[in-house]
Amino acid sequence: MTHRSRILGIGMSVPKRIVTNNDLATKMETSHEWIVERTGIEQRHWVEEGETGTTLATAASKQAIERSGVDPKDIDLIIYATLSPDFFFPGTAVFVQRALGMKEIPCLDIRQQCTGFIYGLSIADAYIRTGMFKNILMIGSEVHSTGLDVSTAGRDITVLFGDGAGAVVVGRATDDKHMILSTHIHADGSEAEILWTEYPASARHPRISEAAMAERKHFPTMNGKKVFKHAVTRMPQAIMEGMIANDLKLTDIDMMIPHQANLRINQMVAQMIGMPAEKTHNTIMKYGNTTAASIPMCMYDALELGKIKDGNLVCLVAFGAGLTWGSAFLRW
Ligand code: UT7
């Protein structure tokens, strides 16, 4: 017997400390005006000592579990999506499992960067469809700030990223008005290096060196223009793919939640597919780009504002490093 899945509850968490564009302008050559004009970002949250991907994820998960109404004892898998794991190994999901006091359930860490939440949702959906698991805690959590170049040399990337976590509990659907309809995931490794962090790496001998650090290779680098172009090509494709798979018209979609990388990207994507501004939601202004956490955080915000209502048709869409991209369609 196959089952369908649905999101039963959602939660989010950000660090207390707010870093404004003007705060960054005291550390590097940048300005509030430049950042807002190119990206839409006004501020982001960055961790302080003691706050980690695990602590953010644990807070978001507790809220998601509480809102789902599922007994924590009945969660039978944790999926943790991140590009910024707390440690090289083990994966971060086990630390969240420990913090939540969940015993011996499997923990699965996945990468896929900004598309991590969509990939994770596709895994959760597939596991529930087969009946292998009944309730899955799916987390996107990121701490970028401890790995950013807070000098003028890193300004193109550093101003973009924020820390935060979003989590959902995915369980069995009990009617066809509330369910994940489909997920669509893709990757193309041919330009993997246009957005990456090269060091430390097991592919390098040694994994990290003073020379590599002197060249600032332990910080992320990006060809912003190339990434921008790919994003505004792949995101509309992923939306169209889901619309065709579900036989939907654009007007059937009540809310589009795009990954929050750049407000200009999201405005262009909406314009390209003809989606009216009031049917999309953005939170990049206050949180920056939180990669795997951005979609659940944005969905949470839209729900709080009443922009997503019971039974609404919601489209999630993402693009990110790898390159990876995808979409998910669901009835909330
Ligand atoms: O989720 C991960 C996916 N990432 C993305 O989707 C990011 C996609 N790309 C972008 O969002 C944009 O490319 C950026 C916002 C990163 C950059 O915007 P851009 O319009 O492509 O700017 P640019 O890189 O071409 O830089 C234009 C100028 C350069 O100066 P010159 O060479 O013209 O003198 C940069 O050095 O802006 C300069 N610049 C800055 N100036 C002030 C770059 N970063 C900054 C900064 N503040 N933070």
Give a written overview of the molecule.
- This protein is of the alpha/beta class.
- The protein folds into two domains: 168 residues, Peroxisomal Thiolase, Chain A, domain 1 (3-Layer(aba) Sandwich); 140 residues, 3-Layer(aba) Sandwich (Peroxisomal Thiolase, Chain A, domain 1).
- 33% of the residues lie in helices and 22% in strands.
- The protein is built from eleven helices and 13 strands.
- It has a five-stranded mixed sheet, with helices on both faces. A four-stranded mixed sheet has the order 8-13-12-11, with helices on both faces.
- The longest helix has 22 residues.
- Bound molecules: oxa(dethia)-CoA (UT7).
- Oxa(dethia)-CoA binds next to helix 2, helix 6 and helix 8.
- The site of oxa(dethia)-CoA has 20 residues, from helix 2, helix 6 and helix 8.
Ligand catalogue? oxa(dethia)-CoA
CATH architectural type of the largest domain: 3-Layer(aba) Sandwich
CATH class placement of the largest domain: Alpha Beta
Domain count, please report it: 2
Beta-strand content bin: 15-25%
| Strand arrangement across the biggest beta sheet | 1-7-6-4-5
Q: What gyration radius follows from the Cα positions, in whole Å?
A: 19 Å
Distance between the termini: 23 Å
Overall body shape: globular
Q: Tell me which oligomeric state these chains represent.
A: single chain
**Which sequence of SSEs, written as H and E, runs from N to C?**
EEHHEHEHEHEHEEEHEHEHHHEE
Quickly give the structural class.
Answer: alpha/beta
Mean pLDDT across every amino acid position: 97
